[in-house]
Amino acid sequence: MKRFCPSPFQYAVIRMDPVAMVEHFNDPIATSEARALDTKKYLVYLEMSLDLPFPTNFWYRYEVSVIATDLRAPEPDRGITPDMAIPIYPNTTHPHRRDPVYTESPFPFSNCYHWVANKTAVRIRRKPDKYD
């Protein structure tokens, strides 16, 4: 069933749209610089919707966890150590043999982790053809 906004509690691929982020400024220099940016795709887990999902919204805000392809780098000043990650099955690699998270359908990558304390907020634009 197609929905007018993505469902939380699922994995998604997102990318920034720098031009859309600056177009409301009506600034040709900012727009030109935004067009020159090389954007990448990011695998995330949609943790929680931060807005009520009305079909008239132009944007939907979510709290997301960015999915990593390796263990964390240590951040001693924040108390972060490399083992503060949870593998996503079929990945079973972890320094302390932590059990992986199992997904409902087979996860397509074999090297991914959820990092602990690694959340951010994003806005996802409403699509005319809806979301799967």
Summarize the structure.
It is built from 2 helices and 5 strands; from the N terminus they run βααββββ. It has 132 residues and is mostly beta strands.
Could you explain the architecture of this structure?
The protein is mainly beta. Helix content is 11%, strand content 31%. It contains two helices and five strands, in the order βααββββ. The protein has a five-stranded antiparallel β-sheet, with no helix packed on it. The N and C termini lie close together (6 Å).
Give me the secondary-structure topology:
Layout: E1 10-15, H1 18-22, H2 28-36, E2 41-49, E3 59-68, E4 85-87, E5 113-125
Antiparallel strand pairs: 1-2, 2-3, 3-5, 4-5
Largest sheet data: 5 strands, antiparallel
| Major beta sheet, strand line-up | 1-2-3-5-4
Low-pLDDT segments, ≥5 res: none
Which range best describes the helical content: under 10%, 10-25%, 25-40%, 40-55%, 55-70% or over 70%? 10-25%
Note the gap between the termini: 6 Å
Determine Rg (CA atoms, Å): 17 Å
Question: How confident overall, as mean pLDDT?
Answer: 92
Fraction in beta strands: 25-35%
Defining key terms:
mainly beta; 5-stranded antiparallel sheet; globular
